[in-house]
Amino acid sequence: MPKINKVAHVVIAVSDVARSKVFYRDVLGMELISDRPDDGPSAFLSFGTQHHDIALFQAPPGAKQGEL
User: Fold this and answer.
1) pLDDT tens digit string along 21-68?
2) HSE value, Cβ hemisphere, 13 Å, CA-based, for 1
3) Which of 1, 9, 47, 56, by CA, is between 20 and 30 Å from 20?
4) Neighbouring C-beta atoms of residue 1, cutoff 10 Å
5) Is the peptide bond before 61 cis (omega within 30 degrees of 0)?
6) Among candidate residues 13, 11, 9, the one with its CA nearest the CA of residue 58
7) Sign of CA dihedral 15, 17, 19, 24
8) What is the CA 45 to chain-centroid distance, rounded?
9) 4 pLDDT exceeds 70?
């Protein structure tokens, strides 16, 4: 399987930032750059070639998949 080393800045609204952070870190091998559990919450992760590749933000309550 090819190893991902970079993506353009992507922002993802997720239902659970803490759970999503574990997936991107432990499954995809990303580095946790910034964890802001009390600010939104949000987290920023990188494949190591730039400050961050992916930003995770808490989706609003009641948000449906594919919508904000």
Assistant:
1) 999 999 999 999 999 988 889 999 998 888 888 999 999 988 888 766
2) 4
3) 1
4) 3
5) no
6) 13
7) positive
8) 6
9) yes
**Strands 54-58 vs 10-14: parallel, antiparallel or unpaired:** parallel
Cα 40 from chain centroid (whole Å):
13
Nearest in space to 12 (alpha carbons), one of 46, 50, 54? 54
**Of residues 39 and 14, more confidently modeled:** 14
Cα distance between residue 34 and residue 26, in whole Å? 16
Question: How far is the C-alpha of 7 from the C-alpha of 30, rounded, in Å?
Answer: 11
Locate the DSSP E strands across the chain. Answer: 10-14, 31-36, 42-46, 54-58
> What is the pTM for the complete model shown?
0.81
What is the token pair recorded at 10?
A: 């992507």
Measured distance CA(53)–CA(66) in Å, rounded: 20
- Please tell me the total number of residues recorded for the chain in this structure: 68
